[in-house]
Design goal:
Elements (H helix, E strand, L loop, with lengths): L1 H22 L15 H4 L1 H8 L22 H9 L5 E2 L2 E13 L6 E11 L2 E9 L1 H19 L6 E8 L22 E9 L4 E3 H4 L3 H13 L6 E3 L11 E4 L8 E2 L1
Parallel strand pairs: 4-5, 8-10
Antiparallel strand pairs: 1-2, 2-3, 3-4, 5-6, 6-7, 6-9, 8-9
Helix pairs in contact: 5-7
Length: about 260
């Protein structure tokens, strides 16, 4: 009897073991990630296809789990950077001020069709907000960047401010009765009487024009305005301009007039 039960127990144990093996997860279904095949090792033809940009499905490859690179946003950032900053005028980030639109004149020939009031140009402050058109504002910027700053260099820490003697004003040339309308009356001119440096030093057209060091800077800055502006006048031109530079954007057939 005991022998018979022993035989039955062994048979039952064998059936249980067989069932466990039958229902076990096959090795081929392991949870470990399947390594991507090395195409180059398999076939030169597949390597060429990969280099040619063939899709993975055409090569029998599984889809890569590597994250897709995000699209570059640099062009968007650059486009935003090209937009004018708030407070800038004339579509130039370095010309600061406000748009004031048409300015009517009391005399025939005066007025500005599309005026701006400029407070700062290329990092240089104007001593008073100055009314002009955008062509004049841009010419002033060119002169400051390519003429004035190179003339001053690092003296006194560089240029901080320009003392404005005159900007828009509806009047005749040199305020003489019966004369033609001044370019100041058209928003095309600005007069500069002094250059103020970062350390507070003042280079005055009236007081420093004939000095050795200061005069050299002023004369170099004066010459550099010929080109950006159509008319450039200074102390050597006439008695009306002995204490300031006159710059305007009027253009003549004979070219730039500089004295």
């Amino acid at each position: 009897m005991r022998w018979t039960l022993g035989i039955l127990g062994l048979a039952l144990a064998a059936q249980i073991a067989s069932a466990s093996v039958t229902h076990a997860r096959p090795v081929s279904e392991s949870l470990r990630p399947v390594a991507r095949p090395d195409v180059r090792a398999e076939s030169p033809d597949k390597t060429q296809a990969v280099n040619a940009g063939a899709p993975p499905a055409a090569l029998g490859l599984t889809r890569s789990l590597r994250p897709v690179a995000r699209p570059a946003i640099i062009p968007v950032a650059n486009a935003a950077k090209r937009q004018p900053k708030r407070g800038s005028v004339c579509r130039d980030r370095s010309i600061r001020g406000e748009e004031i639109g048409p300015v009517a004149g009391k005399l025939t020939g005066c007025g500005v069709s599309d005026a701006v009031r400029v407070k700062e140009v290329a990092g240089v402050t104007l001593s008073q907000p100055s009314v002009m058109d955008c062509d004049t504002a841009k010419a002033l910027k060119t002169w400051i960047d390519k003429g004035l700053k190179p003339a001053v260099k690092r003296r006194g820490g560089g240029v901080a401010k320009l003392k404005v003697a005159a900007h828009y004003s509806c009047r005749t040339r040199n305020s003489r009765k019966g004369a033609k309308i001044s370019e100041h009356g058209k928003g095309k001119a600005i007069d500069i009487s002094a250059i103020i440096l970062q350390n507070g030093e003042v280079l005055s057209v009236l007081n420093d024009w004939n000095k050795r060091r200061e005069g050299k800077i002023l004369k170099k800055a004066h010459r550099a305005a010929c080109g950006p502006f159509g008319t450039v006048l200074g102390p050597d031109s006439d008695r009306y301009h002995r204490d300031h530079f006159h710059f305007d954007t009027a253009r003549y057939r004979s070219g730039t007039y500089c004295r």
